[in-house]
Amino acid sequence: MTPFTTLASCITGKTDDACTGYPVGNFGIAAEITPNGRVFSRILYNPPVLGSGLEELARGEFMFSCDGVELADTDFENRQVSRLFPEATAAYSDSRMPGLLISASFLAPIKAYDALPCSIPALLADFELANDSDTEKRTSATFKFYLDINPDKITMINSGGFWLIGTAKTKIGFNGPISWKGINGGIQVTCNRIISPRSKSKLRFILACHDPAGFYADLCPDIPALAEHISTNWDQFALDRAEFIGLLPRTHDDQVNRYLRWYLAAGILLTRITRKHVLTMGYCELNQRDSFWTSWPHLVLWPDLERRMIEESAEFQRDNGKIPTTVLSLIDRADDIDINEYFNLRIARYYEWTGDLDFVSGLWPSFKRSMAYLESMDKDHDGYLDQCSYWGDWKDVWGVEGRKAAPHFEFLWLAVLRSAKELAKKLHDTDAAKRYTELYERSCAVINADISDGGLWNGSFYTTLWYDGREDNHVQEDQFVGPLYGVVPRERISSIWKSLEPNMTDWGVRDTYPYRERFSHEGGDYHNGGVWPFLNFADAFARFVTGYPEGGWQILKRVGEWDFEKWGDYMPAEFLNGNTGENDGKPIQAWNADYHAAVLFGALGVKMLSPTKVQIAPRIPDTESFETAITIPHGTLDLKQSAAGSLTIEIKSNLRSKITIRYGAMTSKSGEASTSEQIGACSFQFTEFTLNPGQTKKLAF
Predict the structure, then answer these.
(1) Which residues contact 163 (CB under 8 A, 6 or more apart)?
(2) At residue 2, does pLDDT exceed 70?
(3) Average pLDDT in the 552-576 region?
(4) Which of 174, 296, 540, 701 is deepest in the core (most CB within 10 A)?
(5) Furthest-apart CA pair in the chain: how many Å?
(6) With bands split at pLDDT 50, 70 and 90, how would you rate the model's confidence at 1?
(7) Average pLDDT over residues 358-371
(8) Which residues of 91-115 are buried (b: 16+ CB within 10 A; e: fewer)?
C-alpha cells in the first residue's frame, strides 16, 4: 500500500488525476466518489497499527453492461452525483442502454455513540437497476479493483448471501453469483442480473478489509464473519448514518452547513481505533495539541472515545508530570509547554461538558502533576512560562527559538489555571485551589500588563517577548485563545479582532502578519503567514463566543470555499498559502474538524452550565430562519427559529429527563420575561425555563 501522505495528486488540484475528496468513510476506510461519477476511484485504509498513517489501499471503478453494451461509470451520458460527507449517491442512464436507469447509494458504517460500526473497514454500494422498457434486459455490474494481489493468495467465499473474492485481508463481491478474472494491476468481479420488463433489481456490493488487531475483530474474527455481520446489519447501517447526520448542527447558512460535514471527515478519517487503543492522529500519533482541536466532535458524538484518549494520555505521564509530545507512538521532547496545557484543558473540557466529577477525581493526581510540570517552566519565577527550545507550542520551527513568552502558550496557561482552581474547589482540594488561584492572579496580571511594564499588551494586540529584547510588531492569530477562554480584559477584545484585519485574505486569516524575515519559511508559507484552517475555525469560535459573529461567519465561509471549492479537491488541507490560497501541507489534517466546535459551541452558542442546565444563544440574526438539533450529553433538543414577521423560537426536548434552558435570542426585541444582555457587539434577550421530556416551549420577541 502507498502511504497517503506521499500522494501529491491528493494534495493539490493541479494534476489530471487530482483527488476530489472522500464523501464516504469512517474510522477504518474511506472512498472517493468523484463529481463525474467514478465510484471508489480511490480507497483509503486506516490500519489498526500504531505508527502508520492513512494508506491508499487501491483504486477502482465500476462497469455496467446491458444487452451487449458495456460502459464505465464515467462514460454514461447522464450522471447525477450527490456528495456530502458521510453520504453519496449517483444515478446513471445512457441512450445506448435505452430503458435502463441505475441508481446507487454508498456508505461506510458510521454511528454516533458507538465506535464499533465506525471501526468496520467496509464500503457498501447499494444499486438499483430499473428496466423502464417492455423487453427483458440482460445486465451485469463489474468492479475493477486495482490492488496488487498474489494470485496464489486469492480465495472465494460465500457468506451472508455475498459471493466474495480476494485475500484473507481484503475481499470484494456482490450479493449474487460472481465471475472473476485477473486484470493488469488487479482483479475484476462481475455479477449478472436479468431484469424483467417494467421491473427493478437490487444489487449490493461489498469491499471489506480485515485485521485481527481491529476493534471489530472480537465480534468478527475473519472476513466471512465480517461479511455476515454487514449483510445482517446493512439496512441498520443506513438508518444509523441518517441518525448521525441528524445530530449534526445546522445554521441558516447552507454554505457553512456543507463545509461542516466535509471538515468533520478530517477528524473521523484520522481516528484510529484498535482492540487496545483509540487516538486521533496528528500525523500518525496522538499529539495533545492536535487531538484537543480534533476531538471536539468526539466529545459530543463519541464521548467514551474522548474519555479513553484522556486516560491513555495520562498513562504515559512522566514522573516529573510531563505529558510526552506524542503517545501511540511515543515522541518525547524535554520542554514542550502547550502539550501539558492541552492535556489539562482536555480534562476540564470533558468535565464541563459531561459533569462527570468522578472521572476528574480519578485523574486529579495526574492533573496536579501536570500542573507542577507547567509551573516548573516558569524558570525565573516572574509569572511567565518560559520557552526553552523551539518546542514551546504549535509553532515548532526554526525562527521561534529565542522567544521567552508568546501569547498562545501564555494564555493557555491562564486558561489552565482558571479551570484548575475551579476543579480544585469542586474536589474540595483547598490547598490546590489556593495555590492555583495565587498563580492565576499573578500570571494574569503579568501577561496582561503593558509592554512597558513587562507584559504582552502593546496597546492594540498581544505580542511576543524575546530574550534578546527585540521589538515584535507581528500580529499572531493564535492569540485568539485569550478571548476564547476569557483571560483578557473584555475591553481589549475588539482591538484584537481589529488588529487581525490586515491578516485577513480572501481565503482566511494568516497566522502571522507582517511576515517574519528571519524564519524557516518564506512569507505566506507554513508558520510564517500560512492560513491554517484549524486555527481559523478556532479563531471564528472565539469571535462567536465574544460577541463578534460577523468575523466568525466570514472566516467559516472563506476558508471552506477556498480549501474545498476553489481547488475542487474537497480535502481538508493542513494550511493554505497565505499569498495564493493554494492548498498546501498534508492533504488531510484532523484538527480541521474543530469546524464542528465553531458551529455548535460558537455560532449556536451551546454551553453546559451544569449537568441539568444548558445555555443556547445562537449568534444568528433575528432576520434569519433555521432548524437544527442541539446535541447535549443527555440527548437532543430540536431548535427552530422563524423570522417570518415576528421572531419566534421553538424548542422541543427529546431528553429522558428534565432540563433547564437559558436561551438567548440575538435580537433587540423584547420577549416575555426576557432580560437584555450585551455580549461584545451583540444584543441578546435571555429567557430561562424548564422542559420536561417531550415538552415544547415557544418564545416570541
Answers:
(1) 156, 157, 173, 174, 175, 176, 177, 178, 191
(2) no
(3) 97
(4) 540
(5) 89
(6) low
(7) 98
(8) bbbbeebebbbbbbbbbbbbbbeeb
Distance CA 345, CA 339 (A): 10
The proportion of the chain whose per-residue pLDDT surpasses 90, expressed as a percent, equals 94
> How is residue 260 written as a grid cell?
461542516
What type of residue sits at position 29? I
Helices in 178-294 by DSSP H: which ranges? Answer: 223-246, 254-269, 288-294
* DSSP 8-state code for residue 478: G
Q: Which residues contact 517 (CB under 8 A, 6 or more apart)?
A: none
CB atoms within 10 A of CB 395: 25
Angle between helices 338-354 and 407-426 (to 10 degrees): 40
**137 vs 1, more confident:** 137
Tell me the H-state helices in 485-528: 493-499
Distance of CA 510 to the CA centre of its chain: 21
Residue listed under C-alpha cell 499529539: 287
Handedness of CA 286, 542, 621, 507 (dihedral sign): negative
pTM over 0.90: yes
* Grid cell digits, residue 140: 451485469
- Counting beta carbons within 10 angstroms of the beta carbon of residue 528, is it exposed (0 to 12), middle (13 to 18) or buried (19 or more)? buried
Under 8 Å between Cβ of 344 and 371: yes
Nearest residue to 349 (alpha-carbon basis) of 291, 266, 402: 291
Q: Which domains does the chain have, with CATH numbers?
A: 2-246 (2.70.98), 254-603 (1.50.10.10), 606-700 (2.60.420)
